[in-house]
Amino acid sequence: MTAQPEKAIWEEMQVALDEYKEKLRAEQVGAVLFHLNLAYQHDPDAIHTLLGQRVPCNTALMRHPTVVVESRYPADQAGYTVGALGLLNAAMTAAKLPRVAAMYTDGVHGPATLVGFVEYKPTEEAG
């Protein structure tokens, strides 16, 4: 007869643990975003330039399970490139945290300009 109350207690404990993990995750992501945005506030030009830099990388890095790379642009150039955000997101993924994204102006009235960092939210198109 005591199995049911014990099961209910364990279920309550699991719910509480899950809530704690979610709160901790939110705090960790918040701290990462806070410090990225603080760095941007201290020197917007440096951070904007840093994020714009991409270097060629090999196929082994392209196949890495967490590093985010892009196909070279223009498309007629073979290979891949990696940037600071791709490497940062590798660390975020390894830590079981969501990726971060750089947020830019829309570029309608001039070049797109970095305005800060946010938690990455994939669109349905990007999947």
Describe it for me?
- The protein has helices spanning 3-42, 44-52, 59-62, 84-94; strands at 54-57, 69-71, 80-83, 100-104, 114-119.
- The protein has 4 helices and 5 strands.
- Helix content is 50%, strand content 17%.
- With 127 residues, it is an alpha+beta fold.
- The longest helix has 40 residues, at 3-42.
- Strand 2 (69-71) and strand 3 form a beta hairpin.
- The strands form 2 sheets. Strands 1-3-2 form a 3-stranded antiparallel beta sheet.
- Helix 1 (3-42) packs across helix 2.
Short description:
The chain is of the alpha+beta class and 127 residues long. It is built from four helices and five strands; from the N terminus they run H-H-E-H-E-E-H-E-E. Strand 2 (69-71) and strand 3 form a beta hairpin.
Overview features:
127 residues; alpha+beta; three-stranded antiparallel beta sheet; two-stranded antiparallel ribbon; 4 helices; 50% helix; elongated
Query: Based on helices, strands and strand pairing, what is the structural class?
Result: alpha+beta
Query: Average pLDDT across residues?
Result: 89
- Main beta-sheet annotation: 3 strands, antiparallel
Using the CA coordinates, give the radius of gyration. Answer: 20 Å
Unreliable residue runs: none
Q: What's the overall geometry?
A: elongated
Distance between the termini: 48 Å
Give the SSE string.
HHEHEEHEE
Strand order of the largest sheet: 1-3-2
How much of the polypeptide forms β-strand, as a percent range?
15-25%
Number of helices: 4
- Proportion in helices: 40-55%
